[in-house]
Write a structure and sequence with these properties.
This protein has 470 residues and is mainly alpha-helical. It folds into three domains: 132 residues, Fumarase/aspartase (N-terminal domain) (Fumarase C, Chain B, domain 1), CATH 1.10.275.10; 254 residues, Fumarase C, Chain A, domain 2 (Up-down Bundle); 68 residues, Ribonucleotide Reductase Protein R1, domain 1 (Orthogonal Bundle). Helices cover 60% and strands 6% of the residues. Strands 1-2 form a two-stranded antiparallel sheet. Helix 6 packs parallel to helix 12 and helix 10 packs antiparallel against helix 11. The relative contact order is 0.10.
Length: 470
């Protein structure tokens, strides 16, 4: 062990550790969840440190050798070479100060080594004086959350688009496959499975567009505002130079905050972004629910869809196979929806010049993005790509239903069709069989009306004339 000292007193730190006294204290204090800080948040803080060092060097406030060493050490953090040094619980002290200082200390000690010094001495590079120059936890942490969320949003959007494309492919494949539409879980009117899959594809497309729009809110950065947004201790040009360097590194359309004081207090951009993730989670969960219903059975349920078998479904029932992938999608989506409430509660908890709950915001938003990206990928690869429509079963269910009765209204009238449905239901015959038995319509005319029932169509005057004549 080595001994470091802060204004509270002496602290024992593992001799080989790149972190220092602040991290060691925090690691002892905050043992709440067993979950670590998301790696992408750590990398984003390190990226800020790299760009801040280069900006301060450019402004003549930081020695060139120090700046280069800090930048190089930060690059090692970004590359994941020092991952074991980030030991803190995701739930920690307010404003993310422990994580922020964890990064400052790791970069300072590594930079100290690069310049020929020893860990824990901080003679050549100091975590507060040099690595943290012109910065505060209060502007670094929210900025790092924004950068991390923007980066992870790429995976969410990529996987959402791939899932959309998979459903669009199924829509084309089953464009002419008639099925019975269901409302209130009851037989309703005819439609096609192509329409069902196309609707799911469009819903995902709209949700992804909303995520993209919400992500634009995260491109405004309060970095350079330091403690309360006033910019105390920072060079007047620092925030503009730093944001420009971050934009160059990330490729995002980043811009300095119009009002850094507002940015220090207001976390509502995170509410907007989290809500867009919740919207997508709601759609994915709804689709997963529908698929679970449509594969139910396979003998005692609807059983119109067939999904790939990925694992045995029971420890006691031989041969049972469950819709495991849609069920897992449900659970991932429900967690993302719950996370959104935590983000809302955290964002509204800000008081006066600061919101202390940024660690909670970070944990929940980044977890939601990771869950939704992974769930979308799993859903597509292990379920949707191999999904099939059981055309025989679908046709049987369609024929047993009375859904196409609605299409007969323009030809026979609502009351008359209602009586036919009632009679068919009571006799056990299909509606088609009853109409043909009674000679109410010719077979080819009835087939033509049923075939047109999956969309808008004009009344066929010739069929209407024959029905009236008959």
């Amino acid at each position: 062990m080595r001994t470091e000292e802060d204004f509270i007193g002496r602290v024992h730190v593992p001799d080989g550790a790149y972190y220092g006294s602040f991290t060691a204290r925090a690691a002892e204090n905050f043992r709440l969840s067993g979950m670590k800080v998301h790696p992408e948040l750590i990398r984003s803080v390190a990226l800020i440190k790299k760009c801040a060092a280069l900006a301060n060097r450019g402004l003549g406030r930081l020695d060139g050798k120090q700046a280069d060493a800090i930048a190089k050490a930060a690059e090692e953090v970004i590359a994941g070479r020092l991952d074991n040094e980030f030991v803190l619980d995701a739930f920690q002290a307010g404003a993310g100060t422990p994580l922020h200082m964890n990064v400052n200390e790791v970069i300072a000690n590594r930079a100290e080594e690069l310049l020929g010094g020893k860990k824990g001495q901080y003679k050549l590079v100091h975590p507060n004086n040099h690595v943290n120059m012109s910065q505060s936890s209060n502007d670094v942490t929210p900025t790092a959350i924004r950068l991390a969320a923007l980066k992870l949003s790429r995976a969410v959007l990529k996987e959402a688009d791939a899932l959309r494309a998979a459903f669009a492919k199924k829509a084309a494949e089953y464009d002419g496959t008639m099925k019975i539409g269901r409302t209130h879980l009851q037989d309703a009117v005819p439609m096609t499975y192509g329409q069902t899959f196309a609707a799911w594809a469009r819903a995902i497309e709209k949700d992804a567009a909303e995520i993209g729009r919400a992500a634009e809110c995260l491109e405004e950065l309060g970095i350079g505002g330091t403690a309360t947004g006033s910019g105390i201790t920072a060079h007047p040009k620092f925030r503009h130079m730093l944001v420009a360097k971050l934009a160059e590194e990330t490729g995002f359309g980043l811009k300095p905050a119009k009002d850094p004081v507002e940015m220090a207090q207001d976390m509502n951009d995170f509410i907007t972004f989290s809500s867009s993730l919740k919207r997508y989670a709601a759609t994915l969960s709804r689709i997963a629910n529908d698929i679970r219903l449509l594969v139910s059975g396979p003998k005692g349920g609807i059983a119109e869809l067939i999904i790939p078998e990925v694992e045995p479904g029971s420890s006691i029932m031989p041969g049972k196979v469950n819709p495991s992938i849609p069920e897992a999608v449900n659970m991932a989506c429900w967690q993302a929806i719950a996370n959104d409430l935590a983000v809302l509660l955290a964002a509204q908890s800000g008081q006066l010049e600061l919101n202390f709950a940024t660690p909670l915001i970070a944990h929940n938003i980044l977890q939601s993005e990771e869950l939704l990206a992974n769930a979308s990928s799993m859903f597509r690869r292990l379920c949707i790509d191999g999904l099939e429509v059981d055309k025989k079963r679908t046709a049987e269910n369609f024929e047993r239903s009375f859904g196409y009765a609605t299409a007969l209204n323009p030809y026979l009238g609502y009351k008359e069709v209602s009586l036919l449905v009632k009679e068919a239901y009571a006799s056990g015959a299909t509606l088609r069989e009853l109409i043909l038995k009674k000679g109410i319509m010719r077979k080819d005319d009835l087939e033509a009306v049923i075939k047109s029932a999956s969309g808008p169509s004009e009344v066929d005057a010739a069929i209407l004339k024959r029905v009236k004549r008959g």
